[in-house]
């Protein structure tokens, strides 16, 4: 029998959950960048078809998220997270054995189910069930670890692709889910410790207003649109600003470290402040970076990447900490699923929308994401602390 961790072993729980989520992100969100080309070529398709299947997976995850969150609220997150590893493994195996584009799309649809029950939202809800309103620190902790998913995932996918092929790479990730992530999730506390303690409605405050929920859902959708648009098109955007290819790539490489550095700042200095304060600062980072990039041009590529990455790093944490601080732990998982559903859907279209804008407008396309960022900032200013 796998030993279970006690809630008091906070550091070990954060390390276990952060590592399992790293596997989940690396084997879903980050594999198309490496495997889409060879995956499509084996079926004589354009890579656009694989990215389309991935977009479909994100839409599937948006529909599954609220259901998974409600389940975590009632029964804890350990079982849902363990199920996600089995679902991810099944989807990856389907990709590996796909003999036709139809099976390929089916494999991505299964992975979409895994994304809906096994990424940050499920991890955040699990921690809220363990620690209640004290989950802010652990939530930051798991994002610090899983923030390295691309750093780990892209090279490992590339290594497996070069050594064995894309189908075997998918099988390799399936085995990692079964042999590493699944046992780590099995070690977690059930995740109902804070739920079963006497948390009365008075302790959680009044029910959140529809306006507050709508504003926060808009903030998440807007900021994830920008994050996904930049992830897909940042080098091209920086080159439109006058940066060389080498500078654009080097600047893009700074986003990951900037995200982690900002999360460490959130874990230290900014944790003294309400999450609404740090989220407002983070939302302002991309519009400020956009103004600097347009004003200065290519030499500002590094500044743009650092500011955008830092803001994005804190906004990722805010997806978990801000709803908890504003609305409390009761019903947190289901609420988080609904709040992030629009973000998943908009995220699926972000690369195409911003790519079209970049082609038509050049550097001026940055005003699209800057405007979206300012709208998110305005929505955050309308939100009030509970």
Automatic annotation (TrEMBL):
It is found in: Cell membrane. Residues 13-386 form the Major facilitator superfamily (MFS) profile domain. Pfam families: MFS_1. Keywords: Cell membrane, Membrane, Transmembrane, Transmembrane helix. It is a multi-pass membrane protein. Gene3D superfamilies: MFS general substrate transporter like domains (1.20.1250.20). GO terms for molecular function: transmembrane transporter activity. GO terms for cellular component: plasma membrane. The chain crosses the membrane at residues 12-36, 48-68, 80-99, 105-130, 142-165, 209-229, 241-262, 283-304, 310-329, 365-383. It comes from the Bacteria. This is Major facilitator superfamily permease. It comes from Frigidibacter mobilis. The lineage of its organism: Bacteria, Pseudomonadati, Pseudomonadota, Alphaproteobacteria, Rhodobacterales.
